[in-house]
Design goal:
Ribosomal Protein S5, domain 2; 5-stranded mixed sheet; 23% strand
Amino acid sequence: METINTTGRRKTAVARVYIKEGNGNIVVNKRDYKDYFPTPTLQYVVNQPMEITNNSGKYDIMANIYGGGFKGQAEALRLAISKALTEIDPEHRPPLKSKGLLRRDPRMVERKKPGQKKARKRFQFSKR
């Protein structure tokens, strides 16, 4: 099996993933993913596609992530890993799709409007 390359996006985060057969190492921006994502919740998010398809410890994953915050980056990585697993074996698609891991989350931050404090919040109104 050669290296498979996929991308995942969430908010403004972009994850590029290179996956190949190995023993389960996940490297994010040249660091171990447990160092990069210190909280157990984010580590669970990253491992979710591997757990659902019973592929824990079968593939080495090398990821480059930029933009966004740590939660957006973790979810972008999850989407990229899910896409790569479906590319490796189409049998993985139904369980991943039923959990919603193959859908790019379209929610983005709403832009700030001129003459307002934030996107929807306005400046305090003064009658006099």
